[in-house]
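Predict structure. Chain length: 385.
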Amino acid sequence: MSEFTDQFADWLSQFMGWVGRGNYWIVEVFTIVLLTLVAALVVKLILDRLLVKAEQTHNLWDDALLGAARRPFHWIVWLVGLSMAAQVAAKASENELIQIIEPARRIGVVVLLAWFLVLLIRRAEENFMDPQYSQKPMDETTVRAIGKLLRMSVIITAVLVLMQSLGYSISGVLAFGGIGGVAVGFAAKDLLANFFGGLMVYLDRPFSVGDWVRSPDQEIEGTVEDIGWRVTRIRTFDKRPLYVPNSTFTHISIENPSRMSNRRINETIGIRYSDGHLMPEIIDKVTEYLKNHPEIDTDQTLIVNFNKFAASSLDFFIYTFTKTTNWVHFHEIKQDVLLGVLNIVESCGAECAFPTSTLHLPDGVSVNPAEPELSRSHKPEAAHG
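Prediction complete.
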């Protein structure tokens, strides 16, 4: 044991002598890297612990803040520590790289802070639409629009700060951007039209993600899947994606059946002319049937009236609204209503009409069966022939 202690003492004295000959900067670099490693581990452990506790609650902002800060702050510690170690090493070795260390550190910090803000906006965007963070989640279209604007603002600001850090004049860049913007506006007028068309969709909100839309002006119908800055993606009912430029929505009409308050049943039923005396009874019973139907909204217009002397029928029509707006459930209700009306018509002793024709002959014309003798007299001739 004493032998090992003596050897360690000799090695330590040699190391200190070597350090004393101008190599102390290596110890500094080693110490800085070691402290950076420890600091990074401590920051990681603290943020992980806080994130676990935050996930046990349903607070929107602490989850978003800690979830977004975890990785960027870990790398900021490493960036600051390694840049300090590199600065010490470059200064000791009188290397010209020392001139670029400080700008590189500033650029890295700006990039990491921008990354943190982008992650924060993205996580907050997801939380705003998540039912577990709010009893009434925000509209997906509005949240995504605000999120895109904020992320774009962060990126543009970060780029301007980086250019300022690199020695470029922001005022000159902005002036050049103003002049170039005119040229870009002429060259990319369609792109700008789509951008402002998308902005109008976000502001006016004629439809949202998930809505069923259709246009009477063009062959556009389906479910909105995404509203981008240039195009809107609509999934048609045969499951094909339809990409519509946003500028299209500024000059066409759009129907949004998803925002209907009710769905309408508008049907015409015909009975035979011979059952005309039963029409009042049928109309009364059908009216009473619809008023008592649990799926019919009696606060809306409800009409059952004799409507028309048709070619082969006496027509009455049903005009009413269902409580549901669901497409599948609506057709189930409509089927139930039509079958109920058919049962009422048959219970009254009437029948639904179908196209028929009646032939009227003049009084002087009659059709008599052929005489048997005449039939027999022609048979032998037919046989001889």
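Summary: The beta strands are 212-215, 220-227, 231-235, 241-245, 263-271, 303-309, 314-322.
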